Amino acid sequence: CDSSGTMSVSRCQLFEAGFHSSNLHLKDDTCNGTIQNGRLIFRFDNDDHLCGTVLKSNGTHLIYENGIFNDVDTQRGIISRERDLQLHFSCVYSLTQAVSMNVQINALESLLISVLTCFVMYIKPVEVVDVFYVEVRTEGVDQHQISTVIDSCWATPDTNANNPIHWDLIISECPNPADGTVKLIQNGVSTVARFSFKMFTFTNSDEIYLHCNIHLCLLSSNSCTAVRTASLFKVYNSLGGPSIFVYSLYLGVIECNLFWLFCGNVFIKCNLG
């Protein structure tokens, strides 16, 4: 499942079944396959070469659907003995996932953010009074049809996301009203969601770990953004959008699988299963 997909079938098996490779295509009949190592390979791209791919949602998963079909003679008479091929396939994403920031934030005289990438340790000081920016980015999906929605985010003093000692930052897609420093900058409008909060430390602990529950949403459903009070909306507007982000403290990249998690000045690509 990715923004660029391939589907391949055995050329020999197709020939034995009576189907010539030149007569096969995806739902979009302009998307023909190419022969490679004895297989007929079809390629499609969710950005600019959809080839008839349809995106659906069943409430728990996003589903990309397409198929391989053969050309049919539209001038045939009352009966036909031509064989039809309709090979349907689909690609599935789970809508809801949980992700934790695998980066330790240490507090000494000031907070330190550390990232190990390519066996090089980078350390930058972050003062407790500084504002910390978080970005959750989804890759490998159609950015014109899908948005990333942060349901909740919280901090713990260790890697245990279920630690009873925690501090809520986002609750039910809205900033925690008990923490007046949390600002939800962007959520549910694109594949990128962003928020910020003023740095803090836990009592008797010098470490902070962030965790978030997120889900993917079809933009066509018109239900990807939560309804907020006028006062919260006013705060949201006063931020001036993404232009507030400062990337001068960029540290490095850790690569995993599907989602990019950007916390403060650290990009982390996180495997969401």
UniProtKB/TrEMBL annotation:
Keywords: Disulfide bond, Glycoprotein, Membrane, Signal, Transmembrane, Transmembrane helix
Coiled coil, from the record: none
Domain of life: Eukaryota
UniProt domain ZP: residue ranges: 1-231
Entry's transmembrane regions: 244-268
One Pfam family it belongs to: ZP-N
Protein name per the record: ZP domain-containing protein
